[in-house]
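The aim of this short unit is practical: by the end, you should be able to scan a pair of folded records and say something sensible about each. We start with the first protein, listed as its amino acid sequence and then its C-alpha cells.
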Amino acid sequence: MSRTPSGTPGPDPRTSGRTLAVLLALSASAALAAPTAVATPGAGAGAAQKAMSGAATAPPAIRWGACPPSDPFPAPGPQTQCGTIKVPVDWSKPQGPQTSVFVARYRAADPAKRIGVLMTNPGGPGNPGADSAIYADMEFSPALLERFDVVAFDPRGIGRSEGIRCDESIAGKIPDRPRNAAEFERLRTLNGKLAESCLRRMGPLAGHMDTESVARDMDAIRASLGERKISFMGTSYGTSIGERYARLFPDRLRALALDSAVDPERMDAERFLTDGSVAVDDIFKRLLADCEKDTSCVLKGRELISVTEELFARADAGTLREPGPTGPGQRKIDTDQLVHILYFALRQYVPEKATEQLAALHSGKGEVYLHDFGSDRAWQLVLCRDNDLRIRDWAHYRAIRERVAKAAPHVRYSSQALDMVLGCQGWTPPKPRSERAKGALPPVLVVNALHDAATPLAGARRMAASFPKASLLTVDTVGHGMYGMEKPRQAIDAYLSGRKD
C-alpha cells in the first residue's frame, strides 16, 4: 500500500510504520499489467453496462459497522467504517450468482471542507485494498483527509472478499524455468490444471477476477454511497483499475491520479517481457552512474560491468557457487538464480548493498539474498485474463528470450516479468473487453519514477497518451510508488483537491 520507493527519501514518520511491510507485499505480488484503452466488445458487455446503469437507481446496500484490525497494526480509529457489498460474479448476468466485496470508509476530518469521495487502490493484484481506508491516517496527507472520505475495498476474491482457493499441490510440480520443449509443454499443461482447480474450488468467480469486473464493482460501491462522481487514486496495479473505470464510466469521474502506472495496452508476451527487462537494465546503468559518486559502493564503473559479465559466464558454465563466511559453498547458483538475485538487488536499490552482493558472489565470501514471489494465485487469475501473454511453442519462447537478452544485455531479463509470462502459459484465455463508453473524461495526472522495475516509464508514457487530457510527472529516482515522496505527494494532493466538477 505504501508508495515509498526503495532507496529514496521516505514519507514523514507518521507513515513509516507501514512502509516496509507493504513494500514487501508489493514485491511479492505483481503490479505489472493492465487492460487496454480501447478493445473489441466482449459478449455480454452491453448487458453489463445496462446492469451498472441500473445500479445508480437501485444501488446495492452496504451495512456499515466497526472495522476489524489488520494485524500487526493497531485497532482502527472511530473515523473508520467497514462493510460488504454484494455484486454479480458475472456482470453480464446481473441476476446470476453474487460475490461479496469488503469495503472500508474513512470519514473526512472537516465536513465543511469535504469535496467528496476519494476511492483508492494500493496495487497488486493480490493485495487487500481496504487497509488504505482503514489506516488512511498512515497513508494520506492531512490535507486530503480533511477534504475527502477515503473509500477502499479488497478486490473480488482478495483478502476479506471471498478468498482464492486453488490446488496448490499442482503449483509445486510446475517447472520454474523450462529448459527444453518437454518442460515447456509440462509447464503449460500443469498451469491449465491449476486453473481448472481454481474453477472447481471457487466456482465461476475464478473466471471473473479480471480488472474490468473490479472496475464495475467499484461503480457499484459508488452507487451505494449515493455519489454522482468519485475521485480515484491508484498505485501500481491500482492504476489499471482506475484506467478501466475511466473507460467504462468516464462521466462518473471527478479526478483520476495514477501513481506508478502500468501500460494500458493489452501487450503480448514479448513486449511485456521486453519492457520489464529494459527497465531493469536501465536501473543497472543507474547503478553504474550512482556508484561512481558513492564511496560506499564496492564496485565501480567498468569493474561493476566486468564482474557482472564474469558472474554470468560462470553461471552459464555451472561453476558459480553460493558464497559463504569463509568461501564458496557447495550450492550452485545457476543463470536464472543469478538473474533473480540481480533483479531484487536492483529493484530494492540500495547501491552499496547491491554491489556488496555482486562482490560476494564474485569472491565467494559473504552472503546474497534469495527472494521468492510466493505462490499467490491472484496475479494469474487477474493478469492472465487481462492480457494475452500466450506463446506458441518452445521455439517461439526461445526466440523471445534471445531478443530480450539483446535488449537488456546487463541483466538478461526481468525475473518478475518472466514469472508473469510463464505463469500465463496454459492458463484461462484472456477475457474480451468492452468498448470505450461515451462521456467526457477529466484531465488525468500520471506520476512515475524515471527508473521503475515494476511499472516501466514506457508504460506510464503510454498511459498518459491514452487520455485526451493528461499530464505526466516524472521523478528522477529509482523506485515504485511516488506518493511517499514530498514533491510527488504535494502534486497529487494539489491535483485531487483543486479539480472542479
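Turning to the second protein, read its sequence before its C-alpha cells, just as you did above.
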Amino acid sequence: MAVAIDIKRLVRGLEAEGRETSDFDLNPNADRFAASQLRTAGVLVAFIERPSGLNLILTKRASHLKHHPGQIAFPGGRMDEGDTDVIATALREAHEEIGLTADNVEVLGQLPPHETVSRYSMVPILGRIRADFDAVCEVGEVAELFEVPVDAVLDPSRFRIEQRMWRGTMRSYYTVPCGPYYIWGATARVLKGLAERVSQ
C-alpha cells in the first residue's frame, strides 16, 4: 500500500463516508429478511501495535458451531439483555471468547451495521488493545486466535470475489488472502468496507 495504516488513519477512516454492508451486497436478488427479523450483534475489530506495525486480531470459529463453523471471524456475538449497548456486547464477547478484558481496549468507534445471512445486524466496534494480554480461547467457540498485519487485510486491491453453492443457490462473496487463512464472507466484507475508508 502507498500509505502505512496506523491508529490515526483508522480513526480518520471511521469519519469517512461509507454505507452499511451486507452479505447480500453481491447477491441483490436473494431473499432478504425484514429489519424486524434481525437480531443485534456486536463484534470487536481489535488492533494491536507490534514492532513490525499494526496487527489485527482474528479468530477461527470452532468446527462444531451451528453458524459459520470453522470460519475466520472477529470476536463477538449476540447482544444480551444485560448489555448496555452494542459496544458492551462486543467487549463482553471478546472477554468470554479470547480473555481480552474491557479495560485493556480503547474503543475507537464503530462501523455501520452489517447484515448477515444468519439474520444478524452485526455492528463492528473498532478498538486498540492497550497492552499485550494472555489469550485464553473459549474452547466451545474458538478453535484458534491469531494476528495478521493490517496491510495484508486492509488493502482494497487484495480482495477477490468468489462463488459457491449455498442452500441450492450460487452465492457470490468477498475473500481476502492472508497466509494459511481463508478469510471470506461477512468478515471479509467488513474488512473491505474498512479498507475502502482508510484508503480515501
